[in-house]
Protein backbone atom coordinates (compact mmCIF):
# COMPACT_ATOMS: atom_id res chain seq x y z
CA UNK A 1 0.00 0.00 0.00
CA UNK A 2 1.39 3.38 -1.01
CA UNK A 3 1.59 6.15 1.54
CA UNK A 4 0.94 9.73 0.58
CA UNK A 5 1.68 12.92 2.41
CA UNK A 6 -1.55 14.76 3.09
CA UNK A 7 -1.10 18.54 3.04
CA UNK A 8 -2.20 20.27 6.22
CA UNK A 9 -3.03 23.87 7.01
CA UNK A 10 -3.93 24.65 3.40
CA UNK A 11 -6.09 27.60 4.47
CA UNK A 12 -3.15 29.44 6.11
CA UNK A 13 -1.70 32.16 3.92
CA UNK A 14 2.06 32.57 3.66
CA UNK A 15 3.60 35.38 5.69
CA UNK A 16 6.12 37.65 3.97
CA UNK A 17 6.81 40.49 6.44
CA UNK A 18 6.21 39.50 10.05
CA UNK A 19 2.51 38.73 10.50
CA UNK A 20 1.52 40.35 7.17
CA UNK A 21 0.48 38.03 4.35
CA UNK A 22 1.04 38.61 0.65
CA UNK A 23 -2.60 39.57 0.09
CA UNK A 24 -2.50 42.12 2.91
CA UNK A 25 0.77 43.56 1.64
CA UNK A 26 -0.58 44.01 -1.90
CA UNK A 27 -3.74 45.69 -0.57
CA UNK A 28 -1.68 48.04 1.61
CA UNK A 29 0.65 48.79 -1.32
CA UNK A 30 -2.31 49.68 -3.58
CA UNK A 31 -3.84 51.87 -0.86
CA UNK A 32 -0.51 53.61 -0.26
CA UNK A 33 -0.21 54.26 -4.00
CA UNK A 34 -3.67 55.84 -4.12
CA UNK A 35 -2.85 58.00 -1.08
CA UNK A 36 0.47 59.06 -2.64
CA UNK A 37 -1.24 60.04 -5.89
CA UNK A 38 -3.81 62.11 -4.00
CA UNK A 39 -0.99 63.85 -2.08
CA UNK A 40 1.02 64.52 -5.21
CA UNK A 41 -1.77 65.72 -7.53
CA UNK A 42 -4.51 67.03 -5.21
CA UNK A 43 -4.89 69.75 -2.64
CA UNK A 44 -4.60 69.13 1.10
CA UNK A 45 -8.34 68.64 1.81
CA UNK A 46 -8.63 66.13 -1.03
CA UNK A 47 -5.55 64.37 0.36
CA UNK A 48 -7.05 64.16 3.87
CA UNK A 49 -10.43 62.91 2.63
CA UNK A 50 -8.78 60.34 0.36
CA UNK A 51 -6.45 59.19 3.14
CA UNK A 52 -9.32 58.59 5.56
CA UNK A 53 -11.47 56.81 2.98
CA UNK A 54 -8.70 54.67 1.49
CA UNK A 55 -7.29 53.79 4.94
CA UNK A 56 -10.74 52.59 6.03
CA UNK A 57 -11.07 50.32 3.00
CA UNK A 58 -7.47 49.06 3.29
CA UNK A 59 -8.00 48.04 6.92
CA UNK A 60 -11.41 46.56 6.08
CA UNK A 61 -10.23 44.44 3.14
CA UNK A 62 -6.78 43.54 4.46
CA UNK A 63 -7.33 42.78 8.15
CA UNK A 64 -11.03 42.27 8.95
CA UNK A 65 -12.37 38.70 8.84
CA UNK A 66 -15.99 37.57 9.00
CA UNK A 67 -16.48 33.99 10.18
CA UNK A 68 -12.73 33.44 9.79
CA UNK A 69 -12.94 34.28 6.08
CA UNK A 70 -11.43 37.41 4.48
CA UNK A 71 -13.82 40.32 4.11
CA UNK A 72 -13.70 40.35 0.31
CA UNK A 73 -15.03 36.76 0.18
CA UNK A 74 -17.79 37.72 2.62
CA UNK A 75 -18.68 40.72 0.45
CA UNK A 76 -18.76 38.63 -2.75
CA UNK A 77 -21.00 36.00 -1.12
CA UNK A 78 -23.26 38.70 0.31
CA UNK A 79 -23.70 40.39 -3.07
CA UNK A 80 -24.37 37.06 -4.81
CA UNK A 81 -27.02 36.21 -2.24
CA UNK A 82 -28.54 39.65 -2.50
CA UNK A 83 -28.74 40.00 -6.29
CA UNK A 84 -28.53 36.58 -7.95
CA UNK A 85 -30.80 34.36 -5.90
CA UNK A 86 -34.53 34.44 -5.39
CA UNK A 87 -35.48 35.77 -1.99
CA UNK A 88 -38.56 33.57 -1.58
CA UNK A 89 -38.52 29.86 -2.18
CA UNK A 90 -41.80 27.98 -2.10
CA UNK A 91 -41.95 24.24 -1.72
CA UNK A 92 -44.77 22.71 -3.73
CA UNK A 93 -45.67 19.28 -2.48
CA UNK A 94 -46.56 16.95 -5.30
CA UNK A 95 -47.64 13.35 -5.13
CA UNK A 96 -44.93 10.92 -6.20
CA UNK A 97 -46.04 8.94 -9.25
CA UNK A 98 -44.15 6.27 -11.07
CA UNK A 99 -44.76 5.56 -14.73
CA UNK A 100 -44.23 1.95 -15.76
CA UNK A 101 -44.25 1.17 -19.46
CA UNK A 102 -43.68 -2.13 -21.18
CA UNK A 103 -43.95 -3.48 -24.70
CA UNK A 104 -46.20 -6.46 -25.19
CA UNK A 105 -45.65 -8.38 -28.40
CA UNK A 106 -48.57 -10.33 -29.87
CA UNK A 107 -47.85 -11.77 -33.28
CA UNK A 108 -46.76 -8.93 -35.59
CA UNK A 109 -48.25 -6.06 -33.66
CA UNK A 110 -46.68 -4.32 -30.72
CA UNK A 111 -48.88 -2.89 -28.08
CA UNK A 112 -47.47 -0.28 -25.77
CA UNK A 113 -49.16 -0.34 -22.45
CA UNK A 114 -48.42 2.14 -19.76
CA UNK A 115 -49.84 2.52 -16.34
CA UNK A 116 -49.28 4.85 -13.46
CA UNK A 117 -49.08 3.70 -9.91
CA UNK A 118 -49.12 5.81 -6.82
CA UNK A 119 -46.48 4.64 -4.41
CA UNK A 120 -47.53 4.64 -0.78
CA UNK A 121 -45.29 5.99 1.94
CA UNK A 122 -44.79 2.53 3.49
CA UNK A 123 -43.74 1.14 0.13
CA UNK A 124 -41.24 3.97 -0.29
CA UNK A 125 -39.73 3.31 3.12
CA UNK A 126 -39.51 -0.40 2.28
CA UNK A 127 -37.78 0.36 -1.04
CA UNK A 128 -35.37 2.68 0.74
CA UNK A 129 -34.56 -0.08 3.22
CA UNK A 130 -33.87 -2.53 0.39
CA UNK A 131 -31.58 -0.02 -1.35
CA UNK A 132 -29.80 0.93 1.89
CA UNK A 133 -29.06 -2.68 2.82
CA UNK A 134 -27.86 -3.53 -0.67
CA UNK A 135 -30.59 -6.11 -1.22
CA UNK A 136 -29.95 -8.04 2.00
CA UNK A 137 -33.34 -7.07 3.40
CA UNK A 138 -36.15 -9.03 1.77
CA UNK A 139 -39.63 -7.57 1.68
CA UNK A 140 -42.45 -9.70 3.01
CA UNK A 141 -44.72 -8.84 0.11
CA UNK A 142 -43.89 -7.82 -3.41
CA UNK A 143 -43.08 -4.15 -3.93
CA UNK A 144 -44.65 -2.18 -6.77
CA UNK A 145 -41.49 -2.48 -8.86
CA UNK A 146 -41.10 -6.21 -8.43
CA UNK A 147 -37.89 -5.85 -6.43
CA UNK A 148 -37.57 -8.39 -3.68
Pattern of helices and strands: EEHHEEHEEH
Anisotropy-based shape: elongated
DSSP helix fraction: 40-55%
In terms of per-residue confidence, which ranges show pLDDT below 50 for 5 or more consecutive residues?
106-115
Task: Note the total helix count.
Answer: 4
Rounded to an integer in angstroms, the radius of gyration calculated over CA atoms is 32 Å
Average residue-wise pLDDT: 80
Strand order of the largest sheet: 1-2
Helix/strand/pairing category: alpha+beta
Main β-sheet: number of strands, strand sense, barrel status?
A: 2 strands, antiparallel
Number of strands: 6
Distance between the termini: 39 Å
How does this model look, in words?
By secondary structure, the protein is of the alpha+beta class. It has two domains: 15-83, no CATH class; 97-132, no CATH class. It is 44% helix and 20% strand. It is built from four helices and six strands; from the N terminus they run E-E-H-H-E-E-H-E-E-H. The radius of gyration is 32 Å and the shape is elongated. The two termini are 39 Å apart.
Q: Notable features of this structure?
A:
single chain, 148 residues, alpha+beta, 2 domains, 4 helices, 6 strands
Write the layout of secondary structure elements.
Layout (H helix, E strand, L loop, with lengths): L14 E3 L2 E2 H20 L2 H20 L1 E2 L2 E2 H13 L13 E10 L2 E10 L2 H12 L16
Antiparallel strand pairs: 1-2, 3-4, 5-6
Amino acid sequence: MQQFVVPQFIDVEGKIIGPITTRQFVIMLAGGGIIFLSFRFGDFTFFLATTVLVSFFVVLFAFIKVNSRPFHLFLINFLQTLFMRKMLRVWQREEFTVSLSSKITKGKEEVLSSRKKTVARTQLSELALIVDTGGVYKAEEETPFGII
